[in-house]
Amino acid sequence: MDTYSLLSLIAVGALWGCTNSLIKKGGESRKHKVTFPKPVTIRSFSVYIAQNLLSLFMDWRFVLPFTLNQSGSLLYYILLGSSELSMAVPICNITTFMFTIVSGLMLGEKLQGNPICKPTKNSYNLFSK
User: Fold this and answer.
1) What pLDDT does 33 receive?
2) Using an 8 Å Cβ cutoff, are 27 and 39 in contact?
3) Which of 9, 19, 86, 97 could in theory staple to 69 by disulfide, Cβ–Cβ 3.0 to 4.6 A?
4) Nearest to 46 by CA among 29, 63, 54
């Protein structure tokens, strides 16, 4: 894999990762939140979905990161034709994950969730012998 392909795949990961947090923040900060209709019918539900999508795509705080994210997807699609698939996918996934964490922390998000592996009394005994 040449340097240009590697840097391009890292750029795709950066586009995806940095825009993930911005898309989340843009979706949460909508001014016009549509309330769910009571009683629920097929027509009222479809109107609810259409109003939500319209209000989402009218907000630049969502549309701009979404457009950048999709341009990263287009670049990724183009790069898959010239890159090794066994290298392209892990590189993009790792860089996306890392850029998502860093940009989320920069936007003030807190890391949440439980650790993947919690140490127990037995796990300490396993490695101490």
Assistant:
1) 66
2) no
3) 19
4) 54
Phi/psi-derived region of residue 48, left when phi > 0, alpha when psi is between -120 and 50, beta in every other case: alpha
The CA-based diameter of the chain, rounded to the nearest angstrom, is 66
Rounded CA-CA distance 114/106 in Å is 21
101: which residues sit within 8 A by CB, 6+ positions away?
17, 111
CA distance 26 to 123: 43
How is 18-86 classified by DSSP, letter by letter? Answer: HHHHHHHHHHHT-S-PPPPPSS--HHHHHHHHHHHHHHHHT-HHHHHHHHHHHHHHHHHHHHHTTS-HH
**Position 106 pLDDT exceeds 90:** yes
